[in-house]
Design brief:
Blueprint lengths: L1 H29 L17 H12 L28 E4 L3 E5 L5 E5 L4 E4 L6 E4 L8 E10 L2 E8 L2 E6 L3 E2 L3 E7 L2 E6 L2 E6 L3 E3 L1
Antiparallel strand pairs: 1-2, 2-3, 3-4, 4-5, 6-7, 6-13, 7-8, 9-10, 10-11, 11-12
Amino acid sequence: MISAKRTLASVLVAMLLVATAIAAMWLMASAGVFGGAEQPLAGAPESSTESNLSAAAGAGSVEIKSGFQVSQPRDPFEPLIVSGGGPTTTLDDESTTTTTGDGSTTTTTGDGSTTTTTGDGSTTTTTAGDSPDGIRVVLLEVRDESGSLVAVVEVDGETYTVGVGDTFAVSFKVVSLTESGGVFTFGDSAFTLAVGQSILK
C-alpha cells in the first residue's frame, strides 16, 4: 500500500517536471530564442546603443579638459613605499643626521637649521628656523636583552634604557615594543616611534 502511494507520487512528480520542461521550451521557441535572430519586443523603445554610437561617430574626436590626470592601474599588492634598507640616523650633542636608503641625507643642527642633500648630490637646500619648543624624544634603538625587548630612548639629551611598563623622564611610559619601534605615552596621550624617529612633546 505504501509502495503504491510512493510510486503514484513519483509518477505525478515526473509528469509535472515533463510538463514544466515542455512549457519552457514552448515559451523559448515563441520568443525566438532558437531562431538566432534578435527581434525587439512589441512596444519596446529603440535601442539607445545604436543612437549613442551614431551620435559619437558624428561628434568626431573627444576633447579632454586641461587638468585631467589619467593614472595607470596599480597592483594592489605592490607596496606604496619601498624602503632601501631603512633610514640611518647619527646623533651627537649638536646635530642629527638622517641618511635614507636612496642616499639622501638630512642634517639638523642644534640652532634649528636644516640641510638636505639628495641622493645624486646635485641639490642641496639649507633652511634655518627657530628651535621648536617642547621635549624632544628620540627612539635610538630597540634590542633584545635576556629574552625581552628594551628601548634606548633619548629625552632632551638624556638616554634611558627601558622595557614595557617602565616609566622614564617623569611623564613618559613604554606601552609596547616591537623590533622596529614602540608605543609610548606622555601623560595620558599615546604616540608611536620607529627606530631613528623623533617627536616633540
